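stage 2 :: seqdesign
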């Protein structure tokens, strides 16, 4: 039996579900968007590159626990219902995000700072593990036949829009209070604001009704008594769980996090683009690409889900290295011709004490403006030892805070847009694809686990693993890309061989 819903009702369902899910993604992604600044707050001043890597590891921890959240809240969703389960996940996510904004820095409480943030990050991961499956299932179970890909694709926009919202609030806060204040205490503002957004979403979700399919099951007394056992001990269902993971969500996850999070990290930390410029590039790319979630979701209702998703993976495999090489080439200012320089500002010299021995880190920063309108800072770094018997550290030359000329800026936007377009191809149809694999009474549990292992573990680890690989001796800035390329290639092969090209299959009651 197909439980159709009136058009007004389905849009209310989508609106209420999407708003809450968008806010949860916003809460989850603020941390990644501020990784560099947060790292400086959580770790010692002389931690250097390890502060970023450690902060990305804390960021990744939230992804690793997402599958456990999928099991815990998926089971609750199949036992007590979709509505109250993702109300609970919203409260947990909002509360932990707000508390991250209150954690003192390393200078106040030492290593308790990163430990407390890690604990709250784990709570965030558990909450998100229960949110997505509930929202996608809830919308799919309201969707009329023939439009499941179209309607669930609206939920798919929320992850990218949550990132967009987090970037927008970060840039706005920084511009209002200034870069120095933002790096000191202002980075807490986006975390603290989340409590207001969560409050609005909880109010809206309290007015929602339970899914008609789940209500029917409950009325008939057919609710699963043990969703975990039915999901993973029955051979046929467990086979579908594994196929969904290795043939779809694993590859989809690395495409998602490469195109958005690793792109941002690479542009900011490897290409050394100015903080605001790097966020504006991503904001424009997201703005242009986001409508394609709905385009590909709707198209999948007509031509099937499989080949749209696999084509997105294949294009990432082919184009990632050329795209990131272009990022490097277009941002390289090390060979700037003297004739291209419009002006050179007076050098700014700063001294940062190291350890307790009197050693110091001396940085000499000179801002250089070019005739093209671009600019950058040339930074010389010296280690000066208090013990005269030691050799003075050799200078290290860094080019940072690069502001791109207009044409290069839009090339960067285009490259990010293309990557997010691939995200819309793999992600737009996947909610419909997953709900069609599993029966109603164990759907929340069954679809949540492969989704969050694929996205949370394989995808969420992209920024950390790729940055770590690129830091190894003998590696190049592009070495980290082999991780997402390899995972996407494996998923493409498995999906091409074993997935069926589903489109608008009747979902079991």
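stage 2 :: out
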């Amino acid at each position: 039996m197909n439980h159709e819903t009136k058009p007004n009702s389905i849009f209310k369902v989508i609106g209420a579900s999407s708003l809450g899910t968008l806010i949860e993604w916003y809460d989850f992604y603020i941390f990644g968007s501020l990784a560099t600044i947060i790292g400086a707050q959580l770790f010692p001043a002389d931690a250097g590159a390890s502060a970023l890597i450690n902060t990305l590891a804390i960021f990744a921890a939230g992804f690793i626990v997402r599958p456990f959240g999928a099991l815990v809240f998926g089971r609750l969703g199949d036992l007590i219902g979709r509505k109250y389960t993702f109300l609970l996940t919203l409260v947990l996510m909002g509360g932990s995000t707000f508390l991250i904004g209150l954690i003192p820095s390393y200078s106040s409480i030492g290593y308790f700072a990163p430990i407390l943030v890690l604990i709250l990050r784990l709570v965030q991961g558990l909450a998100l593990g229960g949110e997505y499956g509930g929202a996608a299932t809830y919308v799919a179970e309201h969707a009329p036949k023939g439009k499941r890909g179209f309607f669930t694709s609206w939920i798919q926009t929320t992850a990218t829009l949550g990132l967009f919202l987090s970037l927008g609030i970060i840039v706005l806060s920084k511009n209002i209070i200034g870069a120095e204040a933002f790096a000191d205490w202002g980075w807490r503002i986006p975390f603290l604001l989340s409590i207001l957004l969560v409050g609005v979403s909880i109010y809206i979700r309290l007015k929602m009704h339970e899914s008609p399919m789940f209500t029917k099951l409950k009325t008939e007394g057919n609710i699963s008594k043990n969703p975990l056992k039915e999901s993973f001990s029955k051979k046929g269902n467990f086979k579908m769980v594994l196929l969904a993971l290795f043939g779809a969500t694993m590859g989809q996850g690395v495409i998602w996090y490469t195109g958005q999070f690793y792109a941002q990290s690479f542009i900011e930390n490897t290409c050394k683009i100015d903080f605001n410029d790097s966020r504006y590039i991503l904001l424009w790319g997201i703005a242009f690409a986001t409508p394609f979630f709905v385009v590909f979701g709707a198209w999948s209702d007509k031509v099937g889900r499989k080949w749209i998703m696999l084509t997105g993976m294949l294009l990432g495999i082919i184009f990632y290295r050329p795209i990131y090489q272009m990022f490097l080439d277009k941002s390289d200012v090390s060979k700037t011709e003297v004739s291209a320089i419009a002006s050179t500002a007076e050098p700014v010299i700063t001294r940062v004490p190291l350890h307790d021995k009197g050693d110091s880190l001396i940085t000499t920063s000179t801002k250089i403006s070019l005739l093209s309108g671009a600019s950058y800072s040339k930074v010389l770094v010296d280690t000066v030892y208090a013990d005269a018997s030691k050799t003075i550290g050799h200078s290290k030359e860094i080019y940072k805070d690069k502001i791109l000329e207009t044409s290069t800026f839009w090339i960067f936007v285009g490259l990010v847009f293309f990557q997010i377009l691939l995200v819309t191809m793999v992600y737009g149809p996947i909610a419909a694809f997953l709900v069609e694999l599993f029966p109603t009474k164990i759907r929340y549990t069954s679809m949540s686990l492969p989704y969050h292992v694929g996205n949370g573990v394989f995808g969420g680890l992209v920024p950390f693993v790729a940055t770590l690989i690129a830091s190894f001796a003998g590696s190049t800035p592009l070495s980290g890309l082999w991780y997402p390329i390899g995972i996407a290639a494996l998923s493409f092969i498995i999906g091409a061989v074993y997935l069926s090209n589903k489109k608008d299959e009747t979902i079991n009651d």
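stage 3 :: structure notes
- Strands lie at 341-344, 348-354, 359-370, 375-384, 396-403.
- Residues 1-8 have pLDDT under 50 and may be disordered.
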